[in-house]
Amino acid sequence: MSQLIERHSRKAARILDSARELVLDHGVRKVTVSEIARAAGVGKGTVYLYWPAKEDLILGLFAREVLTFLDEITARIAADPATVLPRRLAPLLIRTGQRLPLARRAQSGDADLLRLLTQQAGDRELFARTTPGALCQTGMPIHHRHGLIRQDRPLRDLTYAVHAVLTGFGAALSDPATASLGVDDPDQVLADTVALLLDPPVPPGEAAIAAAAEETLAVLRQIQQAMLDLIGRSQTLQQ
């Protein structure tokens, strides 16, 4: 059965929603289980029925957010394999990642949230694999192997360059006021930048794109399953 207990319990769903809003408003340290229970309209003991501690609840909450991100990326690639092309995948990773409020709070310097996410080495490594830069690093060998990117430069150099581009665009899109000049369509600028950096002289054929998409999906689904396993471990009730 699904590790997502909120699919089987409305109370669990309300607890998760309440915890998310409280953490976003006040941060991890200031939020208590009593406050979460009160906001969700349940008793404090009901929270502990599903999660052994506040930290487990928030860890599972963050993992759910990352899982939503992965679900959207995999769904888009599965629906249209050409989404795996770097010039299309890069804007998708950045824009989808920006819709993760807890991740943005962590990136903005919430030390308590960052400490919670990095307490266990396995959790830290798993979350690190899901950043746009890390997914780019994972995907580049697949793109290279199937001819989706240029072959005339060392793969490590191209990977470094794309990571730098994604990091810069991510920062600019997260805080548009820091960008010196506004543009009408920053996603298109990012797509054009990645295309100039990576596109091969001869466009890949449909078979190569399909093969790269399938291999990429296999990797993403492994990460999704690992995230589901983490969610399952964070809960008291195993569904």
Task: Give an account of the 3D structure.
The protein has 239 residues and is mainly alpha-helical. Helices cover 71% and strands 0% of the residues. It contains twelve helices and no strands. Helix 9 runs antiparallel to helix 12 and helix 10 packs antiparallel against helix 11. The termini are close together.
Q: What would the average pLDDT be, to the nearest integer?
A: 90
Fraction of residues in H or I helices: over 70%
SSE arrangement, N to C: HHHHHHHHHHHH
Low-confidence spans: none
Helix/strand-derived class? mainly alpha
Total count of strands? 0
* Rg, alpha carbons: 20 Å
Main sheet summary: none
Q: Helix count, per DSSP?
A: 12
Q: Give the strand content.
A: under 5%
Shape assignment: elongated
N-to-C CA distance: 6 Å
Give the secondary structure arrangement, pairings included.
Elements: H1 10-26, H2 33-40, H3 44-50, H4 54-79, H5 86-98, H6 101-107, H7 111-117, H8 121-128, H9 132-145, H10 155-174, H11 186-198, H12 206-234
Helix pairs in contact: 1-2, 2-3, 4-5, 4-12, 5-10, 5-11, 9-10, 9-12, 10-11
